[in-house]
TrEMBL record:
Pathway: Amino-acid degradation; L-arginine degradation via AST pathway; L-glutamate and succinate from L-arginine: step 2/5. This is N-succinylarginine dihydrolase. It comes from Pseudomonas cavernae. The keyword Hydrolase applies. GO terms for biological process: L-arginine catabolic process to L-glutamate; L-arginine catabolic process to succinate.
Amino acid sequence: MKAYEVNFDGLVGPTHNYGGLSYGNVASQSNSQVASNPKEAAKQGLAKMKALMDMGFKQGVLAPQERPDVIALRSLGFSGTDAQVIERAAKEAAPLLAACSSASSMWTANACTVSPSADTADGRVHFTAANLNCKFHRSIEHPTTSRVLGAMFASEQHFAHHAALPAVSQFGDEGAANHTRFCKGYGEAGVEFFVFGRSAFDSRFPAPQRYPARQTLEACQAVARLHGLGEEGVVYAQQNPAVIDQGVFHNDVIAVGNGEVLFHHEDAFLNTEHVLAELHTKLSQRGGHFRALCVPRAAVSVEDAVGSYLFNSQLLSRADGSMLLIVPEECRNNERVWAYLSQLTADDGPIREVKVFDLKQSMQNGGGPACLRLRVALKDHELAAVNPGVIMTQTLHDRLNQWVDKHYRDRLSESDLGDPQLLIECRTALDELTQILKLGSVYPFQLN
Ligand code: SUG
């Protein structure tokens, strides 16, 4: 039976903007108030999807959300018609309107945590939507995320969906951005690696001093229980609090794994030796040979890793077994990072090639190639059960590009968010999109 890793990339929504909403995310904070280009952002994402598809990888697409989120604004006390809600929010509480207008669901690595069927007790692929409750603008994503995932992975025989964990910081959950799966083959039982920033109930775990730790140990454990993962297939590790304080707000900003390989920074974890040894032992018990590729701080500092997003890369297995690293343009612009990558591919290691993509629109909000994709390992018959409307093809790519050309603006600044016309544009675009992707009714405006 064949199995694949399928990457479901987030299609950037029509309200993509720089709201400066994510304290602890250096790029988001430093680009606050810069004018964005939603059309270019969506096209940069589509170009990456097409390039991966053309290279032979399985590629899917995950739909954006309805923004501004008028329901969220109403829950905060703004009333009247939709246009009045938006105008009042713009006048009285611009930061709330910015939060409710964010296109942040584009970073689908934060949509949910996925456990492939080979790892779970009931042999189904399990999904738990992430509550993202560290940031208000992200905490409003999960209800629609759940409906979209339900429309993509509808078969109850193959897929199990869990609602987001309780919406309190003690169960702060950021989804697949802090979750990596190691395996010999995508269809074989693997080891799921959960990285947390703090413990909510056990004060023995140190916490960062400056920036928030978004993911808790207790959230990781809850997801592992919901998915029916056995102890032999799970490893928990604490992220180094010192790197969170330097802007590593998710583990995927400092480490990436695929197959039997973990590519990580020297300072990524606490108790690194112990963590790597446990991964090695547990993967061996599953018939795999774990390999860690550690980037020393002497070669690449944490600051350079955060600035270039070296680790927010996609590590992909090619048909011949070698690996390819998809990195953002910012890696080539950093001399030390580029020198490291040039050496890496010259060595006889598992990573043989590096490909560079221009994702600047997303990068300026702290979202690199890895943030933009949700990985789902699927066996042949499971892939056949996925809604075919969301699987990338040349035709779908072209259709989505035309759709972007038709509906997206090429400039958006904070003052534009108060324009009620933007909501109408967004709804018109999404109504057409649900038909293109054959999702049915998933958005609040379609459900009333
Ligand atoms: O949650 N940025 C996102 C970036 C998420 C990146 N995802 C992963 N690392 N997997 C965040 O901080 C910024 C939005 C703004 O400021 O407008 C934002 O939400």
